[in-house]
Automatic annotation (TrEMBL):
PROSITE patterns: IG_LIKE (PS50835). Gene3D superfamilies: Immunoglobulins. Residues 1-25 form the signal peptide. Residues 252-280 are annotated as: Disordered. This is Ig-like domain-containing protein. Keywords: Signal. It comes from Phlebotomus kandelakii. Residues 252-272 have a biased composition (Polar residues). The keyword 4Fe-4S does not apply. Residues 4-129 form the Ig-like domain. GO terms for biological process: motor neuron axon guidance. The keyword Signal applies.
């Protein structure tokens, strides 16, 4: 026997109302807040949203928990600014979707939030936040200290790169011949705080034993990069030359028997005339050379002996 299907009209109507309400609800609220802004520049804070048929009631901006800007299209004037220390709003560039802050200061670093509210009957409200840091850049490029201009294979190279006084401190990285230095070659030191300011200096040491492959055509190229977010990059570089003695073949013509000529280790100019004669006439001699290693903290001694003939 056929029976008519009973339809729950009340439930169906409720579902339709919910679907209709969802269809016109405020959604997709999103903010575009710069991660970092240079001190003294303007900051553009953007708040996008989709009303989906709803009517906009207000857009509010907060720094932390304190409201500093409100846009209410049904009111006159639609724009209201609430004074807050360090915050200056450019009225002519601000509206229902963006607010422009002028000449930002480091005290303005922190969380900024956009609150969007729909009008009756939904009164939906969504708030979205983002962080912004105001950066005080260093006044000069990073500096490299303690690294000499000439080294030999086997020498220990050790020096510091310093980025002076910024907020926040710069991130320092070393490269060797344009390639990132191994973490085993670097040591990051504790930040140095400014005495009369909140600025900080960063220091990273580079240390490694020089191998033959470090020299490319007799040169080793070092760079230290200082980065702060994506708004600052500077570097210092150092070109190091390979220091090697040039050894000449010994002849039998009776002329000067030095094995070293025109090198940092050649000290024959310190011999007087008498010693020069003895130097040529003796069957054997021992000569001691001391190199002044301007590129190292150690001294090296070389002994050259002419065998008896």
């Amino acid at each position: 026997m056929w029976h008519p299907r009973v339809v729950d009209l009340q439930s169906s109507i409720l579902c339709l109302l919910i679907a209709a309400e969802v269809g016109v609800a405020l959604r997709d609220v999103r903010v575009t807040i710069p991660v970092a802004v240079k001190k003294g520049d303007n900051a553009n804070l953007i708040c996008n949203y989709d009303m989906e048929g709803d009517i906009l009631y207000s857009v509010k901006w907060y720094k932390g928990r304190r409201e500093f800007y409100r846009y209410t299209p049904k009111e006159n004037p639609a724009m209201k600014i609430f004074p807050q220390p360090g915050i200056s709003v450019e009225r002519t560039l601000s509206n229902e979707s963006q607010v422009v802050l002028t000449a930002v200061d480091t005290t303005m670093s922190g969380k900024f939030s956009c609150e969007v509210s729909a009008d009756a009957p939904s009164f939906h409200t969504i708030i979205v936040s983002g962080d912004m840091e105001i950066v005080e850049l260093p006044e000069k490029r990073p500096s490299i200290m303690g690294i000499h201009s000439r080294y030999r294979v086997g020498d220990m190279l050790r020096g510091n790169c310093t980025s002076h006084f910024s907020k926040p401190a710069a991130n320092l990285t070393w490269t060797i011949n344009e390639l990132p230095a191994s973490p085993l070659y670097t040591t990051e030191y504790k930040l140095i705080k400014g005495v009369n300011s909140n600025l900080e200096s960063s220091v990273v040491e580079l240390h490694f034993t020089i191998a033959p492959n470090h020299f490319l055509r007799g040169k080793l190229k070092l760079k230290c990069f200082a980065d702060i977010h994506d708004i600052y990059r500077a570097y210092a570089d150092k070109i190091i030359e390979q220091e090697t003695p040039r050894i000449l073949a010994t002849g039998t013509s009776g002329h000067n028997a030095n094995l070293f000529q025109n090198t940092p280790y050649d000290s024959s100019s310190n011999l007087d005339e008498g010693n020069r004669e003895n130097h040529h006439e003796s069957d054997g001699f021992v000569k001691r050379y001391q190199a002044d290693l301007s590129s190292s903290s150690t001294s090296a001694f070389f002994k050259v002996t002419k065998a008896d003939t």
